[in-house]
Design goal:
It comes from Bifidobacterium bifidum (strain PRL2010). The protein is mainly α and 432 residues long. Helix content is 45%, strand content 7%. The strands form 3 sheets. It has a 3-stranded antiparallel beta sheet with strand order 1-3-2.
Length: 432
């Protein structure tokens, strides 16, 4: 076992992701799906990415989410989709076939997400199950042939989740990008079983020199960034938890000083172990529409959303936020419930997108309403310049179970900042 050295299947073996130069911010749901939601309103088969309508969309999106990318400048002839459209093609959100017309076109999947028929958690689950390397979006025909000639195909998200799960069973349930590209990628290319790969990750943690004589699958500087995108996707959509999200403020600051990005840990989420096993070992349709229907009928989306909400509610700062908010507003404005044990403090504008830890950015919501709000399945539509809102529900199951809320109008507390409410209505796909 100590003398093992993986054999790469061919010289150019690597895990590619979307573009030749990955941009971390584009994988954020706020951009990846938030842009789709906005484009769905103007995609009439005539408007072009180079046109003023797209420029306005980008300006509004940049204003709302403040990413590290200046979206307002990615317009005109050298627009975002011309240079980075592979992100949306990779996930089946815009047509993969070459289209030199520049006309804005969305796939049926993208439209279903924008219209609330497919939740972002279900979308992510479908990607975990179906994404396979190589694919014709990210790989050239020559590269695809190399994989096929060596009878090699890899489901990257499933490989990562399975290995982190194996590591979790040994009390070391995390993975870093360094471990991914140094150990997992070479061994996966050598068709090693996930149990053995997990064991070598553990050995690598004790002695990084065990890979000194291993062949590298990192031919170019961007190759390291490719593998990191897979981990970030799983974190962004609630299937792994980034290290800093488990820490308090002072721990987080200390952590940032001592760890670089490639050594940041992405942790297994034990609360959704059953759902992850289902994703890894279930029998799923290869037809995308049938796959989404199967996922929708499972409890994956609700469990992942609830787990995410519970983790946020357990943060140290969240406890103080909840205490202060419920002291000022002791009832859920939607249901009228006043029982503290079932009330949670929801952030209207998420902290990760610039929302403050202030009471005017919070709503006391009954636990199930909070989950729907976080999942984008329940939105609050402001009525004019008043404090009144209409409730919008998305998804047949939600509408059937909460039919009494459809079209209901109610008044938000005096303390609530309506600008945050308007922001959230326009950005309902972001989560909390």
């Amino acid at each position: 076992m100590g003398d093992y050295v993986p054999v790469l299947p061919f010289a150019d073996y690597k895990w590619l992701f979307a573009t030749k130069a990955p941009t971390e911010a584009l994988g954020d749901p706020a951009v990846l799906l938030g842009l789709i939601s906005r484009l769905n309103k103007i995609a009439n088969g005539k408007i072009r990415y180079s046109g003023p309508e797209f420029a306005q969309v980008m300006q509004n999106l940049d204003r709302d989410i403040h990413t590290t990318v200046d979206l307002s400048r990615r317009v005109g002839e050298r627009n975002l989709m011309r240079n980075s459209g592979q992100y949306w093609k990779t996930f089946g959100l815009i047509p993969a076939a070459p289209d030199h017309s520049g006309v804005i076109k969305l796939t049926d999947l993208a439209k279903s997400i924008a219209e609330g028929k497919v939740s972002q958690v279900d979308f992510a689950a479908s990607m975990i199950i179906s994404m396979k390397l190589p694919n014709t979006v990210n790989y050239t025909p020559e590269q695809v042939r190399d994989w096929e000639d060596h009878d090699l195909s890899i489901h990257p998200f499933k490989v990562i989740l399975q290995i982190v799960r194996d590591l979790n069973e040994q009390g070391e349930g995390w993975l870093t990008n360094n471990e991914l590209y140094s150990v997992v990628v070479p061994m996966a290319g050598d068709k090693q079983k996930h149990e053995r790969i997990a064991e070598y990750v553990r050995r690598y943690r004790k002695n990084p020199h065990i890979v000194d004589n291993w062949p590298s699958s990192l031919q170019r500087s961007n190759d390291i960034r490719f593998t990191g995108e897979y981990l970030r996707f799983l974190n962004n959509f609630g299937y792994l938890q980034k290290e800093e999200e488990q820490l308090g403020l002072f721990e987080e600051l200390e952590n940032s000083r001592n760890r670089n990005r490639d050594n940041c840990r992405y942790f297994y989420i034990k609360d959704i172990d059953y759902q992850i096993q289902e994703l890894l070992n279930g029998t799923w349709s290869e037809n995308s529409s049938d796959l989404l229907e199967m996922i929708h009928k499972s409890d994956i989306s609700s469990s992942v959303t609830m787990s995410s909400t519970l983790r946020k509610n357990s943060r140290p700062r969240q406890q103080q936020f909840r205490h202060d908010l419920l002291s000022a507003v002791p009832r859920c404005p939607i249901t009228g419930v006043t029982v503290p044990e079932v009330l949670q403090a929801a952030h209207i504008k998420p902290h990760s997108y610039g929302g403050p830890e202030e009471m005017d950015n919070g709503l006391p919501l009954r636990a199930d309403i909070h989950c729907l709000f976080d999942a984008g399945l329940l939105s609050l539509e402001p009525i004019g310049n008043t404090r009144l809102c209409h409730i919008e529900l998305r998804g047949d199951q939600v509408k059937n179970n909460y039919h009494e809320l459809i079209g209901k109008a109610f008044e938000l507390p005096e303390i609530t900042n309506m600008e945050y409410v308007k922001w959230r209505y326009e950005n309902y796909l972001l989560g909390a």
